[in-house]
Design goal:
By secondary structure, this protein is α+β, with helices and mostly antiparallel strands. It has helices at residues 15-27, 54-63; strands at residues 4-10, 31-37, 44-49, 68-70. It has one domain (4-71): Alpha-Beta Plaits. The chain is 32% helix and 32% strand. It starts with a strand and ends with a strand. One of its GO terms (molecular function) is metal ion binding.
Amino acid sequence: MENKNLQFKTTLNCGGCVAKVKSDLDNAQGIGEWNVDTDNADKILTVQSEGATEEEIVAIIKSKGFKAEPLSV
């Protein structure tokens, strides 16, 4: 499967929120690098997918009590 960048609008508002999902995203299969732009009004999460699907990433974020919805790239 090809590597691709996926972007999501999230409710990860601050460093504390990002810290809550960090371990799960770091350890998830199929996710390379990722970051959250908390300065952006939409709190954009960018994930370098190495096989992970949008649904899997949204599920990780939701499991920690936050919302994420895929953005069309």
